[in-house]
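One such shown below:
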Amino acid sequence: MAGNRKYGFMRGNASGRNGSGVAKPFYCFACDKNHSASVEKVGISETGEVICNKQYLKMMAAKFEAQKNQIVGYGKLLSKRHDVMMLGVDGLNARVEFVKCAFEYDLVKEITSGGDCQRQFSSCFEMNDAELVIAEVIKASGKKYWLRYSLIKNLGMTLFKSWEDTATAC
């Protein structure tokens, strides 16, 4: 009966065939791959990025876990604060873990606004290997979207882009 005006069916209606209102494939920054149109996507306002719903739910679970375990994260920072000042590979690894821990548990604002570990956080970038520390943190943020999100949220997009440029130069 398609096209039968007598029964109210319109002729020439292209709805659904012209591509309007149809979801398009997209690139997911969290998965680092293209998704088909059937995958649900979520826009992250702070970063301006689009990620799939699966990674968004993982990120939110990591965020709530980090908020719930901030005391545990702070304890980890306190236990690592003496290792930050070490020289060599062990010191570099300690500085990378210290910075990652601060961002993963969302403790950067507490630390930089006069917390117990403020001096150690600054020292992570003052030991003549700041580029390597930044490169390792950015590399780790490629595997954990919550870390990437926390970096962007705490540093701002321009400084984060600068860190990415530093990481690619290393």
In short: Strands lie at 26-28, 33-35, 41-44, 49-52.
